[in-house]
Write a structure and sequence with these properties.
Layout lengths: L1 H9 L17 H17 L6 H15 L18 H13 L3 H8 L1 H10 L6 H9 L5 H6 L7 H8 L1 H4 L3 E2 H18 L4 E4 L1 H4 L4 E2 L2 E6 L9 H11 L3 E7 L5 H4 L15 E10 L5 H7 L1 H4 L7 H8 L2 H10 L7 H15 L4 E10 L2 H12 L2 H15 L2 E2 L4 E3 L4 E2 L5 H7 L13
Parallel strand pairs: 4-7
Antiparallel strand pairs: 1-3, 2-4, 5-6, 6-7, 8-9, 9-10
Helix pairs in contact: 2-3, 2-4, 2-5, 6-7, 9-19, 11-13, 13-17
The structure holds thymidine-5'-triphosphate and manganese (II) ion (MN) (3 copies).
């Protein structure tokens, strides 16, 4: 009843991180319309001011958590994140089945090109804009120029565009993370391997596979990543990738409270890359017989084997070859030719984006929350921590900047209790 809805709106939690948001909710038609406006604002306003995009994001987040299906805008009375602009859009969708503003955006050539270009691995809104300004219409135009920036991600992202735009299924993601777990356990017994990102929030598909690794003993995780990449390489699962060193520094952390636009970025040691997923990953039962060489769990690579390959040429030389600025060298020919040659050759695998993140145990539960997301959950929780508690939340911890001390956590629940938030299950963090 209207009275009950008004009561519900009055008690509606102000922050997204205080609410439950399941993947399935009652207002999909409305949130997809609002999310087009959000996406348009994010692409258009990148480099300047995300406040318009943020307003749409907050509105759609509210709609996702509402316990009722909106049938008229009166029902939104008292909800502070639903502004007049969003109300107009919602009315249009409710009255006519669609919003003319949304339809215009979806039809616009600029939006279509931005969506296409930003769906390439390594391309953000500013590069996409630069490509449009050069008059490029499609990915062939980008391919013709080779890899203009010399960035390995763009070269391989273009060459494997089709593969990488087929959503990764949950079964594949689990098959791959089990192999990562096996290999990591051989290298570092007791290792903790967790499939994070959208899959941990219950999504059945994703654009990549995010895996967080840690170990009960703080510091034991050091040195794991290069060995793990080498072991996966030995199993024929690595296409191309890049390691980032740990760059966490508490002295810098305590200097500054500002939540930058790049607030999502953290300082963990990680590997961002593209792996080769045998096609059998998505149909594990049938292919176990037809492709035994892939599915048979291969015996662990021994420590001595790993010593031979871990620090060997493979990884380092790949990084050298595909590093930006290698434009006029032999390396850049490899950028321009290799990815396309490999993608065009016959193969029984799909290229899949993989993120491997290494966190020391002392930061693990904050890393787990951060890498579970959603992105909006993180943004909201970080802003909430700053505004309501005067604390800085990152994937490394929760920090009191005045006392210069961290609030450590031994569980995800403890992260939430430090934040004075009710515990929210990963499946309910789809805000
Ligand atoms: P993504 O893989 O970008 O997002 P996702 O897994 O939620 O969605 P998809 O299914 O399309 O892959 O990032 C994983 C989570 O990690 C995301 O929810 C936010 C967080 N994150 C960070 O904390 N730091 C980072 O640098 C990035 C890229 C993401
Ligand atoms: Mn992901
Ligand atoms: Mn991503
Ligand atoms: Mn990711």
């Amino acid at each position: 009843s209207p009275a009950e809805e008004n009561e519900c709106n009055r008690n509606f939690p102000e922050w997204a991180c205080q609410r439950k948001a399941k993947l399935e909710h009652l207002n999909k038609k409305l949130t997809s319309a609002v999310e087009v406006l959000q996406e348009f604002a994010e692409l258009r306003d990148s480099n300047q001011d995300y406040s318009r995009a943020l307003a749409f994001r907050r509105a759609s987040s509210v709609l996702k958590s509402l316990p009722f299906q909106v049938q008229n805008v009166e029902q939104l009375k008292g909800l502070k994140d639903i502004g007049e602009h969003v109300k107009t859009v919602i009315s249009d969708v409710l009255d006519h089945g669609s919003s003319s503003e949304v339809e215009e955006i979806l039809k616009s050539e600029w939006f279509k090109k931005m969506k296409l270009f930003t769906s390439v691995f390594g391309i953000g809104p500013s590069t996409a804009k630069a490509w449009i300004e050069r008059g490029w219409e499609n990915l062939d135009d980008a391919q013709k120029d080779g890899c203009p920036s010399g960035d390995w991600r763009i070269a391989w992202g273009l060459a494997f565009f089709e593969d990488l735009n087929v959503p990764v299924g949950r079964i594949e993601a689990i098959a791959f993370s089990q192999i990562v777990q096996e290999e990591a356990e051989c290298i570092l017994p007791g290792v903790i391997t967790t499939l994070v990102g959208g899959f941990r929030r219950g999504k059945s598909q994703g654009h990549d596979v995010d895996i967080l690794l840690s170990h009960p003993t703080d510091g034991a995780e050091m040195g794991l990543l290069p060995k793990l990449i080498a072991a996966l390489g030995k199993r024929g699962l690595v296409l191309i990738g890049h390691k980032e060193k740990n760059s966490f520094r508490s002295d810098i952390l305590y200097q500054d409270f500002k939540l930058s636009a790049r607030g999502q970025l953290d300082h963990f040691e990680k590997w961002l890359g593209i792996c080769k997923f045998p096609k059998s990953f998505s149909t594990p039962k049938i292919s176990k017989k037809s492709k035994p060489e892939i599915n048979q769990p291969t015996p662990c690579t021994t420590d001595t084997d790993l010593k031979a390959t871990a620090d060997s040429s493979l990884d380092e030389s790949m990084n050298e070859l595909y590093e930006p600025k290698a434009k006029k060298t032999k390396g850049s020919e490899a950028i321009e030719l290799e990815p396309n040659r490999i993608s065009a050759a016959p193969r029984d695998w799909l290229a899949r984006r993989v993120d491997l993140i290494i966190a020391p145990k002392s930061q693990y539960y904050y890393a787990l929350v951060g890498w579970t997301g959603s992105k909006h959950f993180n943004r909201d929780a970080r802003l909430y921590a700053q505004k309501k508690l005067g604390l800085k939340l990152t994937s490394h911890g929760l920090f009191n900047l005045e006392k210069r001390e961290p609030l450590t956590a031994q569980s995800e629940e403890e992260v939430f209790s430090h934040l004075k938030l009710p515990y929210i299950d990963p499946a309910d963090r789809n805000c």
